[in-house]
Amino acid sequence: MPRVSVAVMAHRKREKFVPGLVASLDRPAKGVWDQKNDRWDTGRRAMLAYESGATHHLVIQDDAVVCRNLVAGVERALTRVPAPHGTPTPLCLYAGRVKRFRSVVRRHVGSRRPSWLAMPSIYWGVGVVMPVQLISELIRWGDQHPEVANYDYRMGQWLRQQGVEVWYPWPSLVDHRHSPSLVEGRSSAASRHAHSFIGANASALSHRWNRGVVRIPHWKDDT
Fold this sequence. Notes:
Distance between the termini: 39 Å
Number of strands: 10
Mean pLDDT: 90
CATH topology: Spore Coat Polysaccharide Biosynthesis Protein SpsA, Chain A
CATH class: Alpha Beta
Largest sheet: 5 strands, mixed
Strand order of the largest sheet: 2-1-3-7-5
Structural class: alpha/beta
């Protein structure tokens, strides 16, 4: 059975959000705090904070809103996720509503109600579940590519190069709080929400994971 450990990637500007987030999780979480206003540095330390014996590690950001029984639900969901050629599949628990993504979802999902979207990369970092066996190599590669400032995009580039597909629960199991991004130039708080969120009062354990997967090809966020 999959076993998921948890770390919260946290910034002092959002310190007030962290206690409530940790309390809403159904598993103890290690807080990993920004030390030098560097997204990759904080993200890499959070990703490396996995527990011994964990098969997967969830890094969740400080402004996340989560559904009930998130970690237990993720562990159950992972039993439905393939491991092509022995390589476990990472999960991204959030899919945003930025303009171009909305049109992509309309085109590929339409009126269907899949359990999963599959994409060739990580496009959002608010909640990422990484197989532990991939983390060391991912971090080694990421440390060599400081030209990619965003920790989520840096991870996504490595996964794309490795040909590792990323699965997104549908609807998303986490959302952003209504708050502005800490990244200068990012989209407004109003657009920083999941395209479809299961809801803070819904349980991830009640979600059905057997309704199929819709594959969405590479796209670029234009916001």
